[in-house]
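Memo subject: From amino acid sequence to discrete backbone structure tokens
Action wanted: Derive the backbone structure tokens from the amino acid sequence.
How to read it: Take the token row as a discrete description of the fold.
Attached in line: The record itself begins immediately under this heading.
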Amino acid sequence: MLTEEELIKTIAEKTKTPAKDVLEKINEKEIELSGMVSRMGAAYIVGKELGVSLSKPVNRDLKINSIVPNMQKVNFLGKIVNISHVKEFETNDGKGKVLNIILGDETGTIRISLWNEKTEVSERLNSGDILEVIGGYTRRDYRGSTEVRLSNYGNLRIVKDIEINVKESSLKDNNNGGYKDMLLDAVAEDEFVCLKAYLVRIFERKIVRNICPVCKSSLTNTTCEKHGTVNPEKLLVLSGIIDDGYGNINAVFFRDHAEYVLNKSAEDVEKEMETKGEKHFFDSLDILGNYLRIKGVVRMNKVTNSLELICHNVKQIDTLSEINSILNKLKSKQDASAKITA
């Protein structure tokens, strides 16, 4: 990255403006945008206003499967697999907005979240467009997956001169696409799986967390490091062990999936724990033994150094209906075999 002196020299040379005049413009811009940009940011803005391109060439070689949490200056290409609707939410500072886009390439898929004014780009984007992400950074989202966000000077650009074939197994839709039917003795890290298993244990730990409604970071009371005092959003996180008879694995359920398994809202859980205590709450749960159909992704838990299943979708299975379905399938096969024999 260029130093402040190098930036001033570059702007001065390319615009034939005295360096002291460029410095004065930067000082004025810094005062004008006080508290919103750094001094270096003010210098880049001045350069742009004077018609000087100070951005570096974008590296198109970074593949999605190589993008991990806590990266800076992330530049890559991806094909739009899915675009969400712009979601609005309330904060102490007013209304906020967020837009989620799933980008894919031949190595996998990743989510990029656009916040507030950056959501305006949604009107120009369509599924299938190739996007160049410039100036992104990454973090780990509440599901344990990598999420890309744009820095203050980050940008998206539609690219017309190339085509990207998205990895088939990375495509996830509502019809089981990309989720492979699998037994627990065969699952591996980073696989998207669909399985049927019994809930055999619940870990008795804090399951209601306060998070920032804007950046989804954990809060200290009601204070976010980035956004100050906020009206906390409740995040319900339930974890336990599931077993399908062939193996078992830790499973983590977030938000509405946790509410579905518990049959309680986050607010109800918090209220019950406050009034009756955590021990009473867990002792009174009647969900062990529930037979569940779960879609999710298998991740490596860096703390326990073991695989865990992050739930993306969960439905309870009626055991009697499942047995009858299996028996009907067996009967159909027997009838078919009898006809062939006859």
User: Anything to note?
Assistant: The chain has three domains: 4-49, 64-170, 180-324. The two ends are 81 Å apart (CA to CA).
